[in-house]
Specification:
Shape: globular
Strand content: 5-15%
Helix content: 40-55%
Number of domains: 2
Number of strands: 7
Order of helices and strands: HHHEHHEEEEHHEHHHE
Radius of gyration: 25 Å
């Protein structure tokens, strides 16, 4: 229900039974008091409802998607299998390979490839691979994070958008070891993000965690769906609902 609909009964009641004027009170004073009463009611309703709809739309407008992207996401949502159980246990990080590898043959590890892609002004070492510094415009929190290799390297981390543990319980347990290593190093499923936000996410799927930056949730959901669809991974009913809700918040631009 929108705010105008919610306010209609109150405003109608006020119109039928206006506040009696006090003797001698100038009309402009009475009008000012009436306006203040209505304004207070609007503010109270907005505070009670949480994030106003227009604020959510404004946030999403910072990360618009095309109609084609949204249609592809909706189609992927229709295709992914929905499983009834939580999926198998037994996940270990080592089952997805020994850390970052050079899957594209450019001589650099995948983590540094992603940092070069996602950081602004990346500075690399003399070998041209190891990223020493840069600036992250973090999609998960909306914060600007300075990256410097060393004691504060963990301030910026490379997230598996579909977490490896989630991939495992979604179908990756049936893959070969090389296939899991390739998945763990697929740039389509990797994103440089704020370290604490990544730690907060952990191995959660979309039903348990979405980016705190509300406007980015649509793009996040589209990316998760693209990966899960491409790799034949499943979702839980709650996860599917969360992804569906995130797509409902997309702001679409022509293209």
């Amino acid at each position: 229900m929108d705010l105008a609909t919610m306010l209609a009964p109150e405003l109608a009641a006020h119109a039928e039974h206006p506040v009696p004027a006090r003797t001698g009170a100038p009309p402009r004073v009475r009008d000012a008091r009436t306006g203040a009463w209505v304004l207070a009611l609007v503010v109270a309703l907005l505070l009670g409802l949480g994030l106003p709809w227009w604020q959510g739309e404004r946030a999403a407008a910072q990360h618009p998607v095309t109609a084609t992207d949204l249609a592809a996401g909706r189609a992927a949502l229709d295709r992914v299998a929905v499983r009834t159980g939580p999926g198998p246990g037994g996940y270990e990080r080592e089952l997805f390979g020994d850390g970052w590898v050079d899957v594209d043959g450019n001589g650099c590890g995948t983590r540094d490839d992603v940092l070069v892609r996602d950081l602004t002004g990346p500075v690399v070492d003399e070998d041209g691979c190891v990223v020493l510094a840069g600036t992250l415009d973090d999609p998960y929190t909306g914060a600007v994070v300075a990256f410097a290799r060393g004691e504060r390297s963990a301030d910026v981390q490379v997230d598996h958008v579909v977490a490896l543990a989630d991939a495992w319980r979604s179908g990756a347990q049936a893959w070969s070891a090389p296939a899991r290593t390739a998945f763990a190093n697929d740039p389509a499923n990797l994103l440089a993000v704020d370290g604490p936000a990544n730690q907060d996410k952990g191995a959660s799927d979309a039903s348990a965690w979405l980016p705190p930056e509300v406007g980015y949730r649509c793009v996040y959901a589209l990316r998760q769906l693209r990966v899960k669809d491409a790799y034949g991974l499943s979702v839980t009913p709650a996860e599917r609902d969360a992804l569906d809700d995130a797509l409902d918040g997309c702001v679409v631009v022509p293209g």
